[in-house]
């Protein structure tokens, strides 16, 4: 049964919320004074969200909500507003043959306050002219065509083409919140911060494939701002710092740690891992990544089961491809232990639960798809790199 | 800046056997936007044997360059010596591994106009060599955090913020304070900071007064330095008993790993064995770093730092018993006689901030109407409270009682949401 996705401001909660009849649950993003503070999954009863909505949201958001409220009362921020103006930004969307998604993304970008940001679409090895025609309809959007396939190739192209200090990436199937860019930018006041990531919520949960995706590989990294560096984070599991769907990089990242590994991510045999590999290098070279949930966007997860299975296969491949790079080319000797830990503590129990049909188990074909991806990862990386 | 508005400024550079980096500092001073004829540079060559004096004799500077040579006395003594000979109204201390940006002096002068009578600390972001070690990366994080924190408008300065690598002070004020204490093996900067803070002199950070710091520290030197810091902390604690519990040496009986407990015991009782063990462990650090075992490297490094710190403490005090006695000799309550006021947030946050700015108390009791919220206690070595410290104090330390008070008030008004 599908889940409605709602975005509610806590201090203006309506008395009753009607939800269309075909939803049996609602995933609610709770905001206080515009800032996301938590999420709640609530049952929909008789087309309505119950009268205890307020209490349930308070419970789900917990201390975050009170803290946000208090900081608002105090007019005090953990990241203080500085005298220096926010750095200028280029927004880059790397896309390939998805004009409908891209149109929704561009529409949302037009609703961002205009702080002089540059908007750029990198059309990666397109099979039609649809993307170019779409972008021509937006005078503020620059069109860049990159013929070599690969998401990391497109990202590197975006970094080369961008004319501003910060390059904010969002995916073509994502929809940024109006406050997205500003929230990302205010975290760059620390010179060691090379990357800022944000909160990505599901745009819709209409199919079971989307619901499973949200459950097993959600982009959300929680509702607390977190600063990651090499002293507090294992650089080999840098995916915890965020994902490429919602990240901004300082342009100097190329000089400081190098560009994206073009053997990784979508459009290559490795399917994913390019963003995580970049995060890992940023941390290993002593720089920082900030995760700030105030930088919000919404992602349309893949709708069909086959696409979901492909996605999980791709994640498995990407993780092992990236670990192959780290193990063989950067002499990270703890990789085997890490891989074993993931298998023993997460993948194997999932598989056993699926086989034994325990309540709430992961569908067996998804668990197997991820494992197959892992097995493919090392050779995929070596062949992509060759 | 118009020339007639400019004031004479003396840049004092203590140096010890670093003639190449020193040259870079001198070159950068020649490129200042500030009128060069109002600049005097005093280099104090402290026991140099690498031809620094020769280099200086042949150096042609576009500003007045004076060179003082002295037998090795340490940086504090060299700074005092340079300050005594300087003629400028303003003293700007620069280390010999700094590279000032062209607007450095102008930024310091402007900061003094903005906060007259203050001591201005400039930013010195570290510049690391390519492919830096974990040690240097950690060090850079420490420096950047320090500057980032000091750049916050609500930062509460402590004696530890007194960084001497890029610091300016009025010459008259420096003379009145008596300068740096040369009896300390190191941390004469902290001791100076403590005296300034106790005298109520304002420390201020000028984020635009930038001098790039070409970092050359290495791990072995840092261990030697940590031992000196252990010594210096005892001496500082003797002079300022109220600081004793705030110094790292107060963590003597803190639990730690078995290795760190063993090393701590050796540091006091069998330093010969301890030194041997520490040297052996030190040699494994490189292996850990080469194999990217970062977590283990960091834990072992921190254990060894602790060992050398305790060795330094033991150099002065001799035994753990003596250290315990030393700690017990400090005051139990640091607030005896501290200036304390009470504020009522019900009258508004701005009013409360104004009162703090007017009275500058050492600590404050806070209530909201009849509801007590709590207290910001006196902090040894920290500047007296300003209005700007109120909101972070409430947000970080007193959030829960304040929320309860606000919610109770809201409940009386029969609102559910404060």
Characterize the structure shown:
The complex is a heterodimer of chains A (386) and B (418). Chain A has 386 residues and is an alpha/beta fold. Chain A folds into three domains: 3-74, no CATH class; 89-299, Spore Coat Polysaccharide Biosynthesis Protein SpsA, Chain A (Alpha-Beta Complex); 316-385, no CATH class. Chain A contains twelve helices and 14 strands. Chain A has helices at residues 53-61, 63-74, 99-110, 130-136, 151-161, 180-185, 208-217, 253-257, 274-284, 305-329, 335-355, 364-385; strands spanning 3-9, 17-18, 25-32, 35-45, 48-49, 89-95, 118-124, 141-146, 166-171, 174-176, 193-202, 226-228, 246-250, 288-299. In chain A, β4 (35-45) and β5 (48-49) form a beta hairpin. In chain A, α7 runs parallel beside α10, α10 (305-329) crosses α12 and α11 (335-355) runs antiparallel to α12 (364-385). Chain A is globular, with a radius of gyration of 21 Å. Chain B has three domains: 3-217, Spore Coat Polysaccharide Biosynthesis Protein SpsA, Chain A (Alpha-Beta Complex), CATH 3.90.550; 220-328, no CATH class; 340-412, no CATH class. Chain B has helices spanning 19-30, 52-58, 75-85, 104-114, 134-150, 171-177, 188-198, 219-239, 258-269, 271-290, 294-317, 320-328, 349-359, 390-396, 399-412; strands at 9-15, 39-46, 64-70, 90-94, 98-100, 119-123, 126-127, 166-170, 203-214, 340-344, 363-368, 371-376. In chain B, strands 1, 2, 3, 4, 5, 6, 7, 8 and 9 form a nine-stranded mixed beta sheet that branches. In chain B, strands 10-11-12 form a three-stranded mixed beta sheet, covered by helices on one side. In chain B, α2 links the parallel β2 and β3. In chain B, 38% of the residues are buried. The A-B interface holds A 10-11, 54, 66-67, 69-71, 73-76, 80, 82, 189-192, 229-231, 234-235, 285-286, 330-334 and B 125, 132, 134, 137-138, 140-141, 144, 148, 151-154, 291-295, 298, 349, 391-392, 394-395, 399, 402-403, 406, 416-418.
